[in-house]
Amino acid sequence: MLSAVTLAGAVLTGCGSSPSSSAPQGDPNAPLEVWTRSQDSSAKVYTRIFDAFTQKTGIKVNYKAVYNDFDKQIQQRASAKNLPDAVVTDTGSLGVFTQQGLVPEVDRNSITGAGDVTDRAWGNAQTSDGKYHAIPWSTQAMVTLIRKDWREKLGKPVPKTWDELVDLAKAFTTQDPDGNGKADTYGMLAPATTDRGYTLWWASSYIWQGGGDIVTDAGNGKFNVSVDSPETVSSVDWLRGLFCDSKVMNPNALTLSTNDAHPLFETGKVGIYETGPYLFSRFDKNLGKDKYEVIPAPKGPKGDTVLGEGDDLYLMAASKNPTGQKKLAEFMLSAEAQKMGMTVQSGETPVVRLPVNKTVDVKSVLNDDRWATTAQVYQTSGRPFPAVPNFQPFRQKTSETLSKILTCGADTKAELTKLAGDLKKELTSQGIAQ
């Protein structure tokens, strides 16, 4: 990957005004090239949104859905000094894009409709220096999906604590919940590959529920490493027990991507899945709405905190049409676009999970109590990853260590102590060590 200095120079040289400038330059009629990190089921929804934008503004959108090698392709376009005009991807890209100079600062107050967006959603677009380098588009919180038919067949209660969760996972693994006479089911599903740091993405909620953390905010823009705290060690030991003692996890969890994980739940291989609400429509179609239930996370020793993050719209540097970029941002923040992103047809995936526009009520739009549950979880228990300048190195290094521990051959405390040393160096490198 190119350095931040190299990319910033390559991309920003001669770029003209940023999208938030009071006097944008460029061609206001130039088409906008827009990428989303999406598969086909989401791309159809985005296509309708961008078609509506074109109808409203006359600005053409050349849309491309990219899923495989998304980050690699962005870096290639940056190196070629030819970035797309706008990109929709997760908030995890905020620090990377900002450090590399791929996105200019956004003046929140210059965006029409910005006042209709919740402050919490704007936080997803805010870098550690308090500035904004993206436009919030969608938020979400992790919820727990359970095979309701399996649970009721085995006479188990809806789990409200970690102990009850493990008990149910053991029953799903050992008591033949599908009734086929074979030992071919597992309790819990985890897309815990180290690719893009997904091991931590999956494990973070459980670590927080146990009172642990990766880094903690010390104030004044400084952070401390807490990945080796007693609470983190205890939480990771609990996770290790799921893999190594009770053995309730799907066997290939540590190499499994999210895309490959979903079929294991909908085809009856695994009975408990902590994931995002965007899968409701898929599982309703492929599994059946009546066969699974959606609940808040069962409480750990220190509560029920879950990962609450989202997607941002990134207005990329050096656009030929900054006026069009700004119009696109304003349209996507509107109630009209937010509702379009939530409303899907059979086989499609919503691209707005929880709306960032506070005038849009998820329950009234979707008339689905599961989404109301998700919204409540986000409000009461959701939290993002720490607002360090670039969290990706922390996420990646921690994922690699967790993967090593969860293979059952490594000592938890020793590995987390070693990791703490690496993360302290990363804090220092980013200039945010306490």
Key phrases:
15% strand, 434 residues, D-Maltodextrin-Binding Protein, domain 2, 17 helices, four-stranded mixed sheet, alpha/beta, disordered N terminus, seven-stranded mixed sheet
Q: State the end-to-end distance.
A: 28 Å
Q: What is the residue-mean pLDDT, rounded to a whole number?
A: 93
CATH topology of the largest domain: D-Maltodextrin-Binding Protein, domain 2
CATH architecture title of the largest domain: 3-Layer(aba) Sandwich
Q: Compute the number of helices.
A: 17
Question: What best-fitting shape do the alpha-carbon axes yield?
Answer: globular
Keywords: Cell membrane, Lipoprotein, Membrane, Palmitate, Signal
InterPro entries: Bact_solute-bd_prot1 (IPR050490), SBP (IPR006059)
Protein name: Extracellular solute-binding protein
